[in-house]
Design brief:
This protein is α/β, with parallel strands linked by helices. It has helices at about 30-40, 45-50, 85-105, 125-135, 170-195, 205-215, 225-230, 235-240, 295-310, 355-365, 380-390, 400-415, 445-460, 490-500, and strands spanning about 1-5, 15-25, 60-65, 75-80, 110, 160-165, 220-225, 250-255, 265-270, 270-275, 315-325, 335-340, 345, 375-380, 395, 415-420, 435-440, 465, 475, 485. Strands 7, 8, 9, 10, 11, 14, 15, 16 and 18 form a nine-stranded mixed β-sheet that branches. A six-stranded mixed β-sheet has the order 1-6-5-2-4-3, sandwiched between helices. The chain is elongated, with a radius of gyration of 24 Å. The protein binds ligand BES, manganese (II) ion and zinc ion. Zinc ion binds next to β10.
């Protein structure tokens, strides 16, 4: 789908449908909606007066222009209450409208920038949100479906024209749309990798995808195999990997802009391409979801792509430890002791607590960059899903400044995070009788003890951990988030790094 930005009056557009909007409670529309209402001889006003359109968020109505305008149809979308309007509502209404247009079997339409008028949002941000919502709503993962969807699902939107009335705003809107398109493409990459079944997305395939992406976007790429890992002393990652026939990979992506200043920010993503639990085998019921246990790694890949595409002027490194976790005759076992890259020894209590093991080596490796900050993302614990559900990710940090930056980016993107404590009392649960620490602290405070475990490998680095177990996939459609992988974190991290000063 192409999004073009042009100057004009929307009611004059030659296209299949024009899209305008309305706040809840408005009886006499102004702006572009007012112009369209006038051209339609007050039809929108009639709809409101009759109580047939209230302007509720994501409400839609289709009107027919009967020759009053070049376009045959007008789609009206509700913006909800004006005092509750924000950038996420822009993403939502853009997504709702794009889905509606697709369900009508149409391929092109013209839209205004929701929120840049009466709502008073920054036009560049509203335009970015418009592009994000539009693209993200159209995402589908159909690669493995050989029979076409019967519900009009075959049509693809081809062209969306964003029509801007003020000449001075055209370039600003173009800039916002440009950013939104790159960010949405990065989210789509992350969703694709996360949705991809484990027989297609093995650690080597993940590394190949990273290599291909790095080449296209101008990032530096490296991938370590088992021999390199042994040399580096990554005994925790190797321990998890030893039960699988698939070779592990440790992927390194580097964004080094010319004007790069100082130490990099390191992003770490859990890349478990399949987590069966290993010898501590998971129940069968939901095990298939564990093909998505590399969502953190996929988010780091998507974010690195976005940073390169948007030419973010800070050095950033992406680290993705990737392996399967399977039971076999060679698999690691409960009671085994592993030595991580930092020299710390770990008693394996539960082979299903594997994410923290591979992240331990990645965090240890991150130390060689003396980074300005390290942020890891991981589908780490079921306990985090119990605590925060599918609404928010868990945020853990040893650095208040870093946590505040992440919270600000979370607000802007509506990728919700909620900070949880790392009080030292929790570390008691990780004490081992045979090694430096154990990999499971049992059920109480499971998300926190997992984060505490990671903190032991982050040492003095300013560090944050985001547990995305509850938010990396969804089982229901929403305006710009179809069922399946969400790509959570790409927008959050990209916002964070674009805003970094
Ligand atoms: N990948 C899982 C966590 C998970 C659970 C992600 C549900 C997404 C949805 C992780 O490796 C795991 O198995 N964690 C264990 C830790 C426990 C054994 C200490 C868990 O949460 O049960
Ligand atoms: Mn596990
Ligand atoms: Zn896992």
């Amino acid at each position: 789908m192409e999004i073009e930005v042009k100057r004009g009056a929307i009611q004059e557009e030659q296209t299949e449908l024009i899209l305008v909007n309305l706040f809840q409670g408005v009886t006499d529309p102004g702006g572009a909606t007012g112009s369209v209402n006038k051209a339609l001889d007050g039809q929108i006003g009639d709809l409101i007066a009759a109580g047939d359109f209230k302007g509720k968020l994501n409400e839609t109505a289709v009107l027919y222009t009967r020759g009053a305008m070049p376009a045959k149809r007008v789609l009206l979308v509700g913006l909800g209450k004006q005092d509750e309007f924000d950038l996420d509502k822009v993403r939502q209404v853009a997504g709702t409208a794009a889905r509606k247009v697709r369900s009508l079997g149409l391929t092109r339409y013209a839209t205004i920038v929701h929120g840049a008028g009466a709502a008073g949002l920054e036009p560049v941000q509203a335009a970015q949100a418009l592009a994000e919502g539009t693209h993200l709503s159209q995402y589908r993962f159909t690669q493995h479906q050989t029979e076409k969807d019967e519900n009009g699902g075959e049509t693809e939107l081809e062209k969306v024209s964003v029509v801007v009335f003020d000449q001075e705003l055209v370039e600003v809107v173009r800039e916002g749309v440009w950013a939104g398109e790159h960010i949405a493409a990065a989210v789509a990459l992350t969703r694709d990798l996360t949705n991809q079944p484990a027989n297609f997305a093995t650690p080597t395939v993940l590394a190949d995808e990273a290599r291909r992406m790095a080449k296209t976007y101008g990032l530096k790429f490296r991938a370590f195999g088992p021999a390199d890992m042994r040399q580096l002393g990554m005994g925790a990652l190797l321990g998890v990997a030893q039960g699988s026939e698939q070779e592990p990979r440790f992927i390194v992506l580097e964004h080094n802009p010319k004007e790069a200043d100082g130490a990099p920010i390191v992003l770490v993503g859990k890349g478990l391409t399949f987590d069966s639990g290993g010898i501590s085998l998971k129940p069968a019921e939901n095990m298939h979801h564990m093909k998505g246990d590399m969502a953190g790694g996929a988010t780091v890949m998507g974010t690195m792509q976005a940073l390169a595409a948007l030419k973010v002027p800070h050095p950033v490194v992406g680290l993705i430890p990737s392996t399967e976790n399977l039971p076999s005759g060679t698999a690691y076992k409960p009671g085994d002791v592993l030595k991580a890259i930092t020299g710390k020894t770990i008693e394996v209590i539960n082979t299903d607590a594997e994410g923290r093991l591979i992240l331990a080596d990645a965090l240890g490796y991150a130390q060689r960059y003396s980074p300005r900050a390290v942020i890891d993302l991981a589908t780490l614990t079921g306990a985090c899903v119990v605590a925060l559900g599918t609404v928010a990710a868990g945020l853990f940090s040893t650095d208040d400044d870093l946590a505040a930056r992440i919270e600000a980016a979370s607000q802007a993107t509506n990728e919700k995070v909620w900070r949880m404590p790392l009080w030292k009392e929790y570390a008691e649960q990780l004490k081992s009788d045979v090694a430096d620490l154990k990999n499971s602290g049992g059920r109480p405070a499971g998300a926190i003890t997992a984060a505490m475990f990671l903190s032991k490998f982050a040492d003095e680095m300013p560090w944050a951990h985001i547990d995305i177990a509850g938010v990396s996939a969804t089982d229901k459609d929403s305006p710009y988030q179809p069922k399946g992988a969400t790509g959570f974190g790409v927008r959050l991290l990209t916002q964070l790094l674009r805003d970094w000063q």
